[in-house]
Amino acid sequence: MVSPLPKRSRSLSEDSAEALEAKKPRALVPHVAGTLVAAVDPQRRRSGLQAPTMQLTGATGEVLTGQFDPSGQFVASAGFDRHVLLWRTYGDCPNYGLLQGHRGPVMQVLWTADSAHLYSASTDRTLALWDTASGERVRRLRGHGAIVNCVARPGVTTTMASGSDDGTVRLWDPRERPAVAILAGRAPVTALAYAPDGDQLYAGGLDNLIRVWDVRQRTVRSTLAGHTDTVTGLALHPEGGLLLSYAMDSTARVWDVRPFAPAERCLRTLEGAPAGFERNLVKPAWSADGEFAATGGADRTVTVWDHRSGQLVAKLAGHKGNVNQVDFHPREPILLSASTDRTLLLGEYDFGAR
């Protein structure tokens, strides 16, 4: 069921309606060993954000997931309050949509390539496909026997994949309600990433492994081993060839997933982002230019590395709770973070200033 927008939100047609609070918090102090590394000089602003840092509030539960749409104009977020909130990236960052219908917390959101639709995965064992213009739920996808933790899509087809505590990855065509294929694993699936061409799917799980599935053959092509605890998030490099993972062992890893790569696929282990006792499914991200890797963690910061050198570039403070997902703007130097403290932060960065 699609509910009306709350009184404090802004709809597409009501420009005078009051927006959910989007405010500039007190000055944030991103640092490494006490040195400012991502502070933005007001005279050298490089993004279209209204202020160097914008705080988005309005969620009534922990925010587990947040993502820019492919155009960078919009943000979707969701979490323990079971709602999906839609925001505008620019201006006052108004909330313009509330998508309701899930009966459990929403674990992950995922925009379609044209930004016209949005997927959400929930602990209620279902996925939903939403029309982001009308706010209507277009499809409810059923079939998983347990919590749905994650969703992923390739860049060239309409196929979408979901991973669940039931140990399966299901492939979906949004035009059909039943799953078009089921990939059976051996452990709960907690993280997914799709190769751009849709031929390979990477699935991380509770058994600490990342399985590389051949989507056409429905078989496991290889396994990436190295993490010593649950893999919570995966992200494929913008140019392909590299896979970023984060796990409850408090490490991020960069993997070489190119064909015919050396047997030792783990290129680098990145440290400095503790997972903590909450054991949330923390999701990492690559910058749009592929230079930086970032993840959240239990220390309430966003940790950023230069992936080639492995150097810790920034520890970005500001949240008051676990940072559950980070995402980079597709075109501008803006970093999004979603937190247990019920807020999102949009921050302009300049890592070249270190």
UniProtKB/TrEMBL annotation:
Segments for region (Disordered): 1-23
InterPro entries noted in UniProt: U5_snRNP_Component, WD40/YVTN_repeat-like_dom_sf, WD40_PAC1, WD40_repeat_CS, WD40_repeat_dom_sf, WD40_rpt
GO biological process: mRNA processing; RNA splicing
PROSITE patterns, sorted: WD_REPEATS_1 (PS00678), WD_REPEATS_2 (PS50082), WD_REPEATS_REGION (PS50294)
Coiled coil location: none
Keyword tags: mRNA processing, mRNA splicing, Repeat, WD repeat
A molecular-function term among this protein's GO annotations: RNA binding
UniProt superkingdom: Eukaryota
GO (cellular component) term, any one: catalytic step 2 spliceosome
Pfam families listed in its UniProt record: WD40
Intervals holding WD repeats: 56-87, 99-140, 141-182, 182-223, 224-258, 285-315, 316-354
Entry protein name: Anaphase-promoting complex subunit 4 WD40 domain-containing protein
Species, as recorded: Tieghemiomyces parasiticus
